[in-house]
Amino acid sequence: MRIIKKDFVDENTESYCSKGHKLSSGTAYYMQAKDGTIYFGGKQCAESNGRNSLKDVPDLTKSLVSLATTNGGSGGGDKLATDQKKSLAISYLLLREELLHDFKLNGRPLSIPSLTNYYISYQDIGDLSDQQINHILNIEKYSVNNINSKLSLKNLSTCHAYKFIIERTAAHLQQKNNIDGVTFIDSLIRYLKSHCHLTEEQVKGLDKWIQFLPIDLRKAKLKSFE
After folding, report:
1. pLDDT in tens, 37-48
2. What DSSP assignment string belongs to 65-103?
3. Are 61 and 161 in contact (CB under 8 A)?
4. Which backbone phi and psi does 106 adopt, to 5 degrees?
5. pLDDT-above-90 percentage for the chain
6. Torsion (CA) 57, 58, 60, 64 in degrees, nearest 10
7. What is the mean pLDDT of residues 106-120?
8. Cβ-proximal residues to 119 (8 Å cutoff; 6+ apart), any chain
9. Is 168 helix (H, G, I), strand (E, B) or coil?
10. Radius of gyration of the chain from its Cα atoms, rounded to whole angstroms
């Protein structure tokens, strides 16, 4: 199978490698079989069943640190090691063109034609050339320096993590028929999608409702917005 990314999953998702074992951290490697079916598993499961190297696999979960797990990485830049560049470029591409497709900044969508073309090519081929990788990282750098710092890989990753936590919180509040909580959480997701960040007050307000999440998600740490 091809490992396509590490991303968030419903905490009740079953591991491909261990029947009945739930991926309670809310993160998993996505593994695509030849027939297109997507399976989910932890790092060891992915290494055992994937045909490609994990170092090239984009990690979209870096802004949510689960319990004692730590994640490294940063946005684009000249000092990146060669084996980091591909995974970071794919992450940036997926965030702006797919995962945050319904987000806007100053009233404009995050998608832009040059990234859309690379995204279509990546979906067809499953890989990026060195030239494409460098251009995508340069787009990130230009976007941060000349358009808005919220377009950084770090900030968009944080938006993605907050979106996941907010949506899981909403699901658990809906199960408990907690109308006040659902109303507040809905206001957060609307604001997040139109501003690509939350205010300090909103983040503090979210803390109250995160307590309704399962323990692994409840204790996970979210990184700060740019």
Report:
1. 999 999 999 999
2. E-TT------S--TT--HHHHHHHHHHHHHIIIIITTT-
3. yes
4. 55, 40
5. 87
6. 60
7. 97
8. 93, 94, 97, 98
9. helix
10. 18
